[in-house]
Write a structure and sequence with these properties.
Elements lengths: L1 H13 L5 H5 L6 H14 L7
């Protein structure tokens, strides 16, 4: 699975398409943190308009 993620990065870097700032700024998060961030985003999203 890891190789499937590496190849596009290598190709985009070689072709000078890779956004290095975004790539270097990436961070690793745990599944618990991801779930908490999703819940927080859902709670702060505006409620849909009533039909």
């Amino acid at each position: 699975m890891a190789g499937q993620a590496v190849i596009p990065i290598l190709v985009s870097a070689r072709e000078k398409l890779l956004d290095r700032d975004a790539y270097n700024g990436a961070r690793s998060i745990s599944p618990d943190t991801a779930a908490a961030e999703e819940a927080e985003a859902a709670a702060s999203a505006p409620a849909p308009a009533a039909a």
